[in-house]
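Long-time lurker. I teach an intro course on protein structure, and each term I like to show students one example going from raw sequence to a predicted 3D structure in token notation. This year I'd like something fresh instead of my usual example. Would anyone be willing to generate the tokens for the chain below so I can use it in lecture? Attribution to the forum is fine with me.
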Amino acid sequence: MMLKWTSRSAAALLLAGTTLASASATETIRATVIDGYPARAMWVQELTNFFIPEVDKRLAETGNYQMEWQESYGGAIVKPQGVLEGIRLGLGDIGVVTTIFHFSTLPSQAIAAVTPFVSTDARVVTAAIDATADAFPTMREEFAAQNQVYLTNGVVLDTYQIFSAEPIAKPADLEGKKVAGAGMNLRYIEGIDGAAGVRGGLTDFYNMMQTGAVDQSMLWPEAARSFKIAEVAPYMLKVDFGAVNTKALTVNNDFWNSLPAEVQKVLQEVAYDYRDHIAGIAMDEAAASYADYEAQGGTIVELSAEDRVAWAEAMPNIAVEWAEGLNAAGAPGSDMLRAYLQTLIDAGQSPARDWTAELPTN
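-- Reply from a regular --
Happy to contribute to a lecture. Here you go:
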């Protein structure tokens, strides 16, 4: 749990040598930043270490405004699933919404989750999400309906992989097996005969594997390192399902409308920098995690390119299902899907499957 007030604006340093009259011209704005996850979570750490100081630094360039921050993490105000509601109600002014908890309310946020086997580069995916949000108002409108302004998304992992108690090298090795997962990634195994998805939380996977409740689990390498998964699942099948956006940085709409234009501009600009910053950390952490998994006794087997394509093709087309659901609700789901995937292709990514092939032609 973390609850603290700080006033860290660099404006104080810049104004120290000025007259008292000019110092009094600086307006102080209070802002409460919330997340239900603890302060040690990477994206939360970087709110403290990167986002807040950078906002302070840029506001200090003019000296017109300074922020007084209240940071509240780890359940002090909301639980992880409660950030969306907390920001809506004004319990926090700025917060990190974990979007995977809210796909029914924020369906457009599932766009990366429904397009696996495309890109494992968190930096490329996170930029493509915001490019889609800029091109189509749907993403922002979903948050506006929750009384908040969408600033940016967050990709905090490179890709899900399969971790197993027994050696595996191809999709057929999962036939008849029980695979732990969470949310949309459980659908990634639907094309494998007899494979059954078992819903679980990250903190449950170690025990689920240890007790034999499941044979495999889907999680990302950094999480496998943190939870010592190699002890109970010493085999990783490097499938490279792809990076997925799971976070969104948002601002309470009433608070946003109360802010001067200068502060709004700084918050939005720093939000994009924060987005790229945490994506970079995610990639660095992933690279180190593969080596750490092996150091902990794990063995990594890379799925062949042919089997990766076959796995993708065997899946139901969950991307088209997603797009058609948005279309039925009056949103441009098909166009969003096409635009998002084209942005990734233009950025040098190579999808194992054309998820748009089954969309009806315009």
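Some talking points for your students: The first strand starts at residue 2 and ends at 6. The mean pLDDT is 93.
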